[in-house]
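Q: Structure tokens for this one, please.
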Amino acid sequence: MKAKMRKCACGIYTLKKICPSCGNETKNPLPPRFSPADRYGKYRRQMKKKEV
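A: Here is the predicted structure, written as tokens:
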């Protein structure tokens, strides 16, 4: 079985969806793949602006 590494905000890498050290949710550390025909890039950038 193949699993992807995940990263927590505290800097810990794990295979679990919940960080074993702090209990926060982990995320995929890799950026999304680039495609010149990205139909949803505009919406993703809008969401990223709202987070900051």
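A few notes: The two ends are 36 Å apart (CA to CA). The chain has a mean pLDDT of 88.
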